[in-house]
Write a structure and sequence with these properties.
Blueprint: H1 2-24, H2 29-43, H3 76-79, H4 84-91, H5 96-110, H6 118-127, H7 136-145, E1 149-151, E2 157-159, H8 161-169, H9 173-183
Antiparallel strand pairs: 1-2
Helix pairs in contact: 4-5, 5-6, 5-7, 5-8, 8-9
């Protein structure tokens, strides 16, 4: 009975994997990474390296290989191995707002902490060997006003979709600015305010 269930599960896994591969076949690798990251975040999963050898040794070119997390390629399991200091070095935040967004991104994707408070960001900032914030709470407010963070439950914050794309664009600031420009909320124009009344 359990063997039969296991066979059914493997078949379902195979079909689901095939569906994902077919769906993402036309995407570039960066778009695929974004899809995988968001899916993993939604299901609160972190794929750890497996002891099972890869069935596809050249899987770094494949759009999705479930067994490829144990190879030398950069997949989601590798994220847990990146120390916060190295992550911040890669992103090179220049302002307090950028630093808060990067710390929030690290908490979300590397420590499975989607909802966090100011103290969590402050502690991670210390772990990452960053310069101490003059006022962490103020930096969090500014990052929220910039749209990089949004409110969560019980006074906590979470990384916004804009914030996620912004951090992924860093250290390319031109690309990061494009993210903010394209995601800016368009307020309705008050075009009928010239004394015209309905």
């Amino acid at each position: 009975m359990s063997a039969e269930t296991e066979t059914i599960d493997e078949r379902q896994i195979h079909e689901a994997t095939k569906d994902v591969i077919d769906r993402l076949a036309d995407f570039d690798n960066e778009a695929r990474r974004r899809v995988f990251r968001r899916a993993l975040g939604f299901f609160e999963l972190d794929i750890a390296p497996s002891a099972t050898p890869s069935r596809h040794p050249q899987s770094d070119r494949a759009p999705m290989q479930q067994e490829s997390t144990n190879g030398g390629t950069q997949h989601f399991g590798d994220r847990a191995e990146l120390p916060p200091k190295e992550f911040m070095f890669q992103k090179q935040p220049r302002t307090d707002i950028e630093r808060i967004a990067c710390l929030a991104y690290y908490l979300t994707h590397y420590r499975d902490t989607r909802h966090f408070k100011t103290i969590d960001l402050s502690r991670l900032n210390t772990d990452a060997a960053q310069i101490k914030f003059s006022n962490t709470a103020f930096a969090v407010v500014n990052a929220t006003n910039a749209g990089l963070l949004v409110a969560a439950d019980k006074g906590a914050k979470q990384l916004s979709a804009i914030g996620e794309l912004y951090v992924e664009a860093l250290p390319d600031r031109a690309k990061a600015k494009e993210v903010l420009a394209s995601a800016r909320i368009r307020r309705p124009r008050k075009s009928k305010s010239n004394g015209e009344s309905k």
